[in-house]
Specification:
106 residues, alpha+beta, Ybab, Chain: A, three-stranded antiparallel β-sheet, 3 strands
Amino acid sequence: MGVNPQKMMKQMQKMQEEMQRVQMELQEETVSASAGGGAVTATVSGGLEVKAVKIDPAAVDPEDVELLEDTVVAAVNEAMRQAQELAQKRLGAITGGLSGLGLPGL
């Protein structure tokens, strides 16, 4: 059972076009995550760009700036993790088709 190089190239080109389309869509999609019981919310795009950080004014304590800093870091890290997960899901749906090309190891 031989591999048809032309068919394989067409499938690869189609997959590449689909991946580019999904990557562009991911730039527009956002995920949000909160920390500190909702005191800080970070919004990140599917392209891993921080779009917004919202801080509840009640969370601002001049006597404990370190707590606020830690809460911001936690919210941003969780939003980044969710954005990476979103990208993996979307791109994985496309790259999962690699196994249909008959290439060993894919």
